[in-house]
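Hi R.,

Quick one: here's the UDP-N-acetylglucosamine 1-carboxyvinyltransferase sequence you asked about.
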Amino acid sequence: MASFEVIGGHPLKGEIVPQGAKNEALQILCAVLLTSEPVTISNIPDIRDVNKLIELLRDMGVKVGKLATDTYRFQADAVNLDYLDSEQFVAQGRALRGSVMILGPMLARFGKCQLPKPGGDKIGRRPMDTHFLGLEKLGGKLTLEGTDFYRIKAENGLHGTYMLLDEASVTGTANIVMAAVLAQGTTTIYNAACEPYLQQLCKMLVRMGAKINGIGSNLLTIEGVESLGGTEHRMLPDMIEIGSFIGLAAMTGSEITIKDCQVPELGIIPDTFRKLGIQLEVRGDDIYVPAQDHYEIATYLDGSILTVSDHTWPGLTPDLLSIVLVVAIQAKGTVLIHQKMFESRLFFVDKLIDMGAQITLCDPHRAIVIGLDKRNALRGISMTSPDIRAGVALLIAALSADGRSVIDNVEQIDRGYQFIDKRLNALGAQIRRL
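And here's the predicted structure, written out as tokens:
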């Protein structure tokens, strides 16, 4: 188990480029299974979860060629269906949450797929009902072996239909869309997710020959086609990294320029940080965050305390609530953090309290943060990263703290942030990998 030793209290300065979007990559990479023609993808992040998915595709028989540091060419013209019965495939599927998104493409193109219950962060219940119910409505027949192994077949092919999703699941919508593009007839998906990464997937599929209307809305209409061709695709920068760097700059009193942000795709993320009192300036496609000695949380017009909560797009992504919570620790004022989607994501606040933060955990979903207004610095401690996003939030807290912190289990952070220690050290951070 690797660890970070962090010497905090040092302001950072400079420019940093966000990696390609992890959550987009997991969808886009699975979509290469929909065609036998080459698909070239660029701006792929070099992180553990994405690399494991590329390895899975390669082991399934997909030809994988690395053209540049962040660019790969894939060709799924000889997929080995027998590999799905191997113990190695079962182990790979269990280790990676993103493996669930091979279901739609494999069912659409080959008429069957199987998968163990995927792993991923321990952040609460993450049911896959939306995936399976949607694929069943298209004609897939699901069977469950034991408690955690799924088989799905479409013996009579997939057929378009109308469906109203019970939740606007991003990965669920992606799976259903990838299946529907090769189904016979027309599929209408209401309450579809419409996050930028889902829009990116739909735009890529259209370039491959799919017929999708309503991209960017929660009502998608898909007219199935017989086959798809190859294409080239460049992924968006990771909005979670961008938000993390904004929060890092504020928490450590640093002057940072975040390059190539694709600002129009960030939704309300910049304004959410502005509500915390953080100054930021959009310069073309870059975001400049000046060094700030103080930042003050806004209140509602009647003077009541601000609530920051997650929601489906265009609301705030739940992946940034851990960052917002940490940044509020050194703000002036009080904020209620409401994590609606996952009931275990706030359980890392005990470490922040040990560092000196004033936080009341109301229940598994809500925490009240009373800002210190930088009157007292956090103190360095030893702690363990519970998941990707909480791990980076703890890293930000450690970088702002007085003294030495040690963060264990940083493999969790590596799953979502590429070379984060080296990139932040280039800005003046003091992080050593143990």
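The chain has a mean pLDDT of 94.

Cheers,
M.
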